[in-house]
UniProtKB/TrEMBL annotation:
<dbReference type="InterPro" id="IPR008999">
    <property type="entry name" value="Actin-crosslinking"/>
</dbReference>
<keyword id="KW-0812">Transmembrane</keyword>
<keyword id="KW-0009">Actin-binding</keyword>
<keyword id="KW-0206">Cytoskeleton</keyword>
<feature type="transmembrane region" description="Helical">
    <location>
        <begin position="627"/>
        <end position="651"/>
    </location>
</feature>
<dbReference type="Pfam" id="PF06268">
    <property type="entry name" value="Fascin"/>
</dbReference>
<feature type="domain" description="Fascin-like">
    <location>
        <begin position="143"/>
        <end position="253"/>
    </location>
</feature>
<protein>
    <submittedName>
        <fullName>Fascin-2 Retinal fascin</fullName>
    </submittedName>
</protein>
<dbReference type="InterPro" id="IPR022768">
    <property type="entry name" value="Fascin-like_dom"/>
</dbReference>
<feature type="domain" description="Fascin-like">
    <location>
        <begin position="21"/>
        <end position="132"/>
    </location>
</feature>
<comment type="similarity">
    <text>Belongs to the fascin family.</text>
</comment>
<dbReference type="GO" id="GO:0005856">
    <property type="term" value="C:cytoskeleton"/>
</dbReference>
<dbReference type="Pfam" id="PF13903">
    <property type="entry name" value="Claudin_2"/>
</dbReference>
<dbReference type="GO" id="GO:0030674">
    <property type="term" value="F:protein-macromolecule adaptor activity"/>
</dbReference>
<dbReference type="GO" id="GO:0051015">
    <property type="term" value="F:actin filament binding"/>
</dbReference>
<keyword id="KW-1133">Transmembrane helix</keyword>
<keyword id="KW-0963">Cytoplasm</keyword>
Length: 670
């Protein structure tokens, strides 16, 4: 159990930005270090560790688990698996919030640019200063170290108070907004904390604070050089008189767990208001009806904590009570996600149901109405999403979303009877387009379902039952070509039924392998199995063209797989020659795709001409012929292959000129 009784302080992870506005980057190839990153992605994230004997000494660990080190000549390396004496650094904070990093054994300062990094400066200059960009999820709970109390919104007083024993409910959620090297504290009602303690709508100089670190704790310094501190009996958070941070000015950021309310089939809220028994017998939501969901990292089962600090637990005869003070087997529940409702399975293998008196008991073998609960997330009115590749953010030039950005957008989450609508900053809603892309300019809300599969993770499912996924950019060309090859909407013939007397549907759509006629008829195109001797010269020519298409496009797909591997290796190696080779390879792949698509168009046109020669056109009035979306996907794949090839060529040129490879291009390859 953490000393404050709720959560552990978040591990301090951050990016370091030099005087050229470039991030310190740890490359996987050769464990090299440079200052070339233009944004904070995985390779730009560093973890701060403190020496157990000397709290002033810190170690900087890269995303690869290796430690930054400097020898007596100032040479920088990042290959040590365990911290040794040369990995010891001191943080020297500056008045503007930036850090200088000093080698503890040699007393020299670390700095430089691009590939020219060293730790040999005897004094602190502009090149030796680093701005700190926190890599934590920006939504957290704020704990005062001195008062051992949590910050929360006091809406009636228009301030943030630091007097809560536990971070309970939506009011305890604080969002850190990073802009131009400084941080602002944003409350759940979208207001910013000013240094005079007031909450304001607009971000300004008075709401911007530089971040300082002391003994592993955080301090927030305002534009006048004063520090945020809780003041008065309610702990009103505002800038005090101190120009140096003491214990009163220090804070911890703690993970903000999901907090939920449950509504049973009897339309009453699950509560602990009546004592230790957990029953669905309340009509309103209060702290007594709010439960914190904590997910075990190993078993991925969920525990539910009450506002008194106790856990739901299974007791005799299957009853559920709130008597457990520690996590154990009987406090763990499996959640089954069933669209707009959830079912809970206790450690005895039985489902939790609502009895007629409202009491919760784990006695059911199957799931019926009494075993289903509406679960509402109450402490995330503002949603910030981050994945393996970065934060979710609006695409600059379209209505889609990016999942690989170093900056984030704040979305509004609106509950709708077990589902959620997601609203963008422009007031428009998320929706899923017909092509499967998530768009952010919808006029009407569309339902999404939130699931919590493991600790610190959220899954979002759309109404079709499919889950949202954030991909990195370069795999899209492979995916598009694979979709195009595997679908049957390359060529579409639409016959208007009102203009022919037969009951049979004459419309058809075809792909590379099949022709689908009417509602249920499908036939394979016999390119390799047809008896050529029985065919006319024109038919043999058409089948020959089709053979070329079904060879060229799958071959291009296979080549793209190896191109992705080749591109990844060349990115890690930061070699201009390998990058140029990868670029040529992708352009070569694009030629296969272009050839296959072009021949298919020629094949389709000649097939239609042969069909019209055999069958009189007047027999088929009002026939609409068009190419379908499968062909469009193949064209888009070709365009992306060319774009990736050109980007790699540009990266090779930049690497050759500057002697380094920017990590941003690596993202474009993957």
């Amino acid at each position: 159990m953490p000393p404050n009784g709720i959560s552990r302080a978040l591990k301090l992870q951050f990016g370091l930005i030099n005087y050229e506005n470039r991030y310190l980057t740890a490359e996987a190839f050769g464990f090299k270090v440079n200052a070339s990153g233009i944004s904070m992605k995985k390779k730009q994230i560093w973890t701060l560790e403190h020496d157990e004997q000397d709290g002033q000494v810190v170690f900087l660990r890269s995303h690869l688990g290796r430690y930054l080190a400097s020898d007596k000549d100032g040479k920088i390396t990042c290959g040590a698996e365990k911290p040794d004496p040369e990995c010891r650094f001191l943080i020297v904070p500056q008045s503007d919030g930036r850090w200088a990093l000093q080698s503890e054994p040699y007393l020299r300062y670390f700095g430089g640019s691009a590939d020219y990094l060293s730790c040999f400066a005897q004094a602190i200059g502009e090149q030796e200063l680093w701005a700190v960009h926190l890599a934590l999820h920006p939504q957290a709970s704020l704990l005062s170290v001195a008062r051992k109390r949590y910050a929360h919104l006091s809406a009636s007083d228009g301030e943030i108070s630091v007097d809560s024993n536990i971070p309970w409910g939506v009011d305890s959620l604080v969002t850190l907004v990073y802009l131009d090297g400084k941080y602002s504290l944003k409350t759940c009602d979208s207001r910013f904390l000013s240094n005079d303690g007031k909450l304001v709508k607009e971000n300004s100089n008075a709401t911007s604070f530089t971040l300082e670190l002391k003994s592993g704790k955080l301090a927030f310094k305002d534009c006048d050089g004063k520090y945020l501190t809780p003041m008065g009996p309610t702990g009103t958070l505002k800038s005090g008189r101190c120009s140096k941070p003491g214990k009163d000015e220090l804070f911890d950021l703690e993970e903000s767990h999901p907090q939920v309310v449950f509504q049973a089939a009897n339309k009453r809220f699950v509560s602990v208001k009546q004592g230790v028994s957990i029953s669905a017998n309340q009509d309103v939501e209060t702290d007594m009806e709010t439960f914190q969901m904590e997910i075990d990292k190993e078993s991925k089962k969920s525990m539910f904590r009450t506002n008194g600090g106790s856990y739901w637990t299974l007791v005799t005869h299957g009853e559920i009570q709130s008597t457990a003070t520690e996590v154990e087997v009987n406090t763990m529940f499996d959640i089954e996600w069933r669209g707009q409702r959830v079912a809970l399975k206790a450690s005895n293998g039985k489902y939790v149901c609502t009895k007629k008196n409202g009491q919760l008991s784990a006695v059911s073998d199957t799931v019926g109405d009494d075993e289903l609960f509406l679960m509402k997330l109450i402490n995330r009115p503002m949603l910030i999403l981050s994945g393996e590749n970065g934060f979710v953010c609006h695409h600059k030039n379209s209505n889609t979303l990016n999942a690989n950005r170093s900056v984030y957008d704040i979305f509004s989450l609106i509950f709708n009877d077990g589902a959620y609508n997601v609203k963008s900053v422009n007031g428009k809603f998320w929706y899923v387009s017909s092509s499967g892309l998530v768009c952010s300019d919808g006029e009407k809300p569309e339902d999404f379902f939130l699931e919590f599969p493991e600790h610190g993770r959220i899954a979002i499912k759309c109404s079709s039952g499919k889950y949202l996924r954030g991909d990195q950019g370069g795999l899209l060309s492979f995916s598009l070509l694979a979709v195009a090859i595997g679908t049957d909407y390359w060529y579409i013939i639409d016959v208007n039924k009102s203009n022919h007397t037969g009951s049979e549907d004459l419309s058809s759509h075809s792909g590379l392998w099949r022709i689908n006629e009417g509602a249920n008829r499908s036939s394979v195109i016999p390119s390799f199995t047809a008896n050529m001797s029985s065919l006319s010269e024109a038919e043999r020519h058409l089948l020959g063209l089709h053979k070329v298409v079904v060879i060229m496009l799958p071959l291009s797909l296979v080549l793209l797989v190896f191109g992705w591997i080749f591109g990844l290796v060349s990115s890690l190696a930061s070699s201009p020659k390998l990058l140029a080779g990868s670029a040529s390879y992708f352009l070569f792949c694009s030629l296969f795709t272009l050839t296959g698509v072009s021949i298919y168009i020629k094949y389709s046109n000649q097939a239609m001409e042969e069909f019209e020669r055999i069958v009189s056109p007047e027999n088929f009035p009002n026939v609409d012929v068009s190419f379908g979306w499968s062909l469009a996907a193949a064209w888009l794949s070709y365009s992306l292959e060319v774009a990736i090839g050109l980007l790699l060529m540009l990266a090779a040129r930049i690497t050759q000129m500057k002697g380094h490879y920017d990590s941003g291009v690596a993202i474009a390859i993957l």
